[in-house]
Design brief:
The protein has helices spanning about 15-50, 85. The protein is mostly helical and about 100 residues long. It has a domain at about 15-50. It is elongated and about 100 Å long. The N and C termini lie far apart (about 110 Å).
Length: about 100
């Protein structure tokens, strides 16, 4: 006998499917782990970041004006929603 033992043995039947199943299983596991971590973060924020009445707050700011009300030439609410919802052509004027 020489240094070679002979031809390699063929891969067992279904080895490709097992590899594919392993890769898909790992991907599903990663997606589930991300969803679990995100859900835990949302539950933690919900449990710890509310005030005594159950509302979320962003702090307070004092606004003052020498007139009876605040006036603005426009309002940008930072949304790319549909124009029919966010565009108001009518304006109110004091007479």
């Amino acid at each position: 006998m020489g240094p070679f033992a002979g031809p390699p043995e063929p891969a067992p039947a279904g080895a490709g499917w097992r590899t594919l199943a392993l890769v898909v299983g790992v991907l599903v596991l990663l997606v589930a782990a991300v969803a679990l971590i995100g859900g835990a973060a949302i539950v933690a924020v919900h449990a710890t970041q509310r005030d005594s009445d159950g509302y979320y707050g962003s702090g307070t700011t004092t606004l003052r004006t020498p007139t009876h009300g605040f006036v603005s030439n426009g309002l940008d609410i930072g949304s790319d929603g549909p124009g029919w919802l966010f565009h108001r052509p009518a304006s109110a004027r004091s007479g």
